[in-house]
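Board notes (copied after class):
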Amino acid sequence: MSNTMQSQLGSVVGLWRYPVKSMMGEELNAAHVTERGLLGDRAYALVDPSNGKVASAKNPRKWAKLFDCRAAFAGSPRLGEKIPPARITLPDGTIVTSEQSDVTQILSKVFGREVTLETTAPQTPSLEEYWPDMEGLAHRETTTDETMPAGTFFDLAVIHVLTTATIDRLRELYPQGRVEVRRFRPNIVVEVASGEKDFVENAWVGHTLAIGNELRLNISGPCPRCVMTTLPQGDLPKDPGILRTAAHHNQVNVGVYAAVVRGGAIRRGDPVRID
């Protein structure tokens, strides 16, 4: 491995946790990471009792309103303790909590279909994913059933890492779009020390990322993007060009997935290097 790869890559400039799968999440200054990712990440999810599938904005024809909801914890999750209740801000500004006796009825009304709010994932969870008609995607203009890691509410891996270099490169390639970190829903955002604008994470696959004094992540593969990146989020407009740019210039990948080799604390400002 080159000396450049072994030296400090950059530092952590963003941390995000998503208490309820596919809802908007919360930005953090610090967190604890376990083998299951950031403590509390995707701790809750909506499940469609008619088919047992996990609700995901990957199928916006059913679940687009998930992005109109924001979830945060009522208290800070702590190791060895029960996950605290989730506070969910609904599209009209109403706040409900996961402990309310009528939360299922309220959420079902919001989504126009029966849902349940769960903290325990099915042993073999799955979701529906809609693929827009766009060159470069694995499927086009169809909806597929996608399996998820057993017993979790994650799509493919427990950690998603994204760099400012990739964001800056996408902005350079697609200046008319609003390319922002929150479109891609990462857990960890790294600002690279080199200042380059490129898909630098591609070179990290297969290596171990060291963050701060404790955390070690195995970069398992690139993060393939989906229709979620094109959807409106808060003040961000709908924009298919975001996904089209990723497809054309980086095989639909933005950022990388990681598994936790050694857990520990992570904070904004922590140095990041390749071991």
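Comment from the instructor: Confidence is low (pLDDT under 50) at residues 1-5. The chain is about 15% helix and 35% strand.
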